[in-house]
Design a protein that fits this description.
alpha+beta; four-stranded mixed sheet; about 15% strand
Length: about 300
């Protein structure tokens, strides 16, 4: 315990007076050789370790390929991928209990035989303070669905004890995911401005700050006119790896632009005085000619 005698007396006194212990003393009471300790009310180092069975509810194999032999066959292929191991499974339930059961149950061995979990993407609550379990409007009519207790929890993004209860919820789940990931695995965490700072610290705490790979800005809206602030126009995807030898499939992340999107973009640029970049002839090395930039600068000066 890194408290001086005077600080120890103060802590004893505040406890006797039924007063809260100053946070800086809480840190000193539990600190080790680390320079920084992430602390919040309700933080616990023990995590759930239950292993519950998964009850089979529905099974759908891939449709059988067309057979021209004339034989009578079933509609679905009984050798479908979903019958083998843990692949292609949609698991319904409390994600903390599911993660714990995957980590501590019989499926853990099957997962590790296949090389472990390589990639995890999560889209946790953003702490928006909203309850998404209300009624739904469809074709001008209002539909009301009475939800189960589990659904009421799953679709509510309200935290009675504030951000500390949110951190307690997400911390345990991140710990479980870290336990399940293979050494070359990665995690992508989707969030927005409300919690991205908190989640970044949680991920640093669990994975290590040196395992931060990148921060991806997912632009959700275009430019908009605002009077007192810049527009909040993007979500954040935090990208962390289990080790430095993580898998990154660079050829799989680029997809072609949607049909017509380049034409629309060029029309917008030209309409505002810009130039269609597809009409520029590049140098032999694939770069824009230097005199192009001179011409643009001169034309700007003339204006």
């Amino acid at each position: 315990m890194n408290l001086s005698d005077k600080e120890k007396e103060l802590v004893i006194q505040v406890i006797k007076n039924n007063q809260p212990i100053p946070k800086e003393y809480i840190y000193k009471m539990h600190s080790d050789e680390e320079d920084v300790f992430l602390f919040w009310n309700g933080r616990k180092e023990d995590i759930t370790n239950v292993a519950l069975p998964f009850h089979h509810i529905e099974h759908i194999d891939e449709p059988r390929k067309e057979d021209t032999s004339g034989q009578t066959i079933s509609m679905f292929d009984t050798k479908g991928r979903q019958k083998a191991g843990w692949h292609n499974k949609l698991i319904w339930g409390d994600n903390k209990l599911i993660l714990s059961s995957l980590a501590n149950g019989p499926l853990r061995e099957e997962i590790e035989k296949e090389g472990g979990l390589k990639l995890v993407y999560i889209d946790p609550p953003f702490a928006v303070g909203a309850d998404f379990s209300h009624t739904i409007e469809l074709n001008g009519e209002t539909a009301v669905k009475n939800q189960s207790v589990l659904e009421e929890i799953a679709y509510r993004d309200t935290w009675q004890k504030g951000i500390s209860s949110y951190l307690k919820m997400i911390y345990e789940r991140i710990r479980l995911i870290h336990n399940l990931l293979s050494n070359d695995g990665s995690i992508y965490v989707h969030c927005d401005w409300r919690v991205n700072g908190y989640l970044r610290l949680i991920l640093d705490d669990v994975f290590g700050s040196n395992r931060f790979v990148n921060e991806i800005a997912w632009c959700t809206t275009g430019a908009s006119r605002v009077e007192k602030n810049y527009p909040r126009k993007h979500d954040t995807i935090l990208y962390y790896s289990k080790s430095e030898n993580y898998t990154f499939n660079k050829d799989d992340i680029r997809i072609p632009y949607a049909e017509g999107s380049i034409d629309r973009a060029n029309r917008n640029v030209v309409a505002t005085g810009g130039m269609n970049f597809e009409s520029i002839e590049l140098n032999a090395d694939g770069k824009v000619p230097e005199d192009f930039w001179v011409d643009i600068q001169l034309s700007d000066n003339k204006e």
